[in-house]
Amino acid sequence: MGRGGEGGPPGRRDRIEVRDLRVVGVHGVLAEERERAQPFSVDLDVFIDTAAAGASDALADTVDYADLVERVARVVESQSFALLEALATAACDSVLRADTRVAACALTVRKLRPPLARDVGSVGVRVLRRRDPDAPATAG
């Protein structure tokens, strides 16, 4: 393949997309954010080569997005971070551990009710994490 587009890794244009996953979690710097759960929205892009799945039409030849959704939701629900950057990184790391075919993970996490004096729809961060080619392959 040619060069990657939209911030993806070079040579990896294929991706699985999940949009607007809604999950409740406890994340934030302020005491009020640490006392009760609040809603978050997550967008996920998983960069993989989908040629085998496109040819075979078999789930075994791709990464199951249902599993990816559950992994990301578990991180948001069961862990607690002060910063959205740390939350997004932990969720991406979980996706990268899911399957060695995942070349990279881009994840946007938005706080839907940020404690701000101004009226904003959300605040968020987007991180891109690539698989370390020197890291040992792990599953799960």
Summarize the structure.
By secondary structure, the protein is α+β, with helices and mostly antiparallel strands. It is built from 4 helices and 4 strands.
Describe the model.
With 140 residues, the chain is α+β, with helices and mostly antiparallel strands. α3 (65-78) packs antiparallel against α4 (84-98). 29% of the residues lie in helices and 26% in strands. The two termini are 28 Å apart. The model is unreliable at 1-5 and 136-140 (pLDDT under 50). It has helices at 31-35, 51-56, 65-78, 84-98; strands spanning 15-25, 38-47, 104-111, 123-130. It has a 4-stranded antiparallel beta sheet with strand order 1-2-3-4, with helices on one face. It has a single domain (15-130), classed as GTP cyclohydrolase I, C-terminal domain/NADPH-dependent 7-cyano-7-deazaguanine reductase, N-terminal domain (GTP Cyclohydrolase I, domain 2, 2-Layer Sandwich), CATH 3.30.1130.10. It is built from 4 helices and 4 strands.
| Assembly state (oligomeric) | single chain
Strand percentage: 25-35%
The first-level CATH class is given as: Alpha Beta
Count of discrete alpha- or pi-helical segments spanning 4 or more residues: 4
Largest sheet: number of strands, sense, barrel closure: 4 strands, antiparallel
**Strand adjacency order, main sheet:** 1-2-3-4
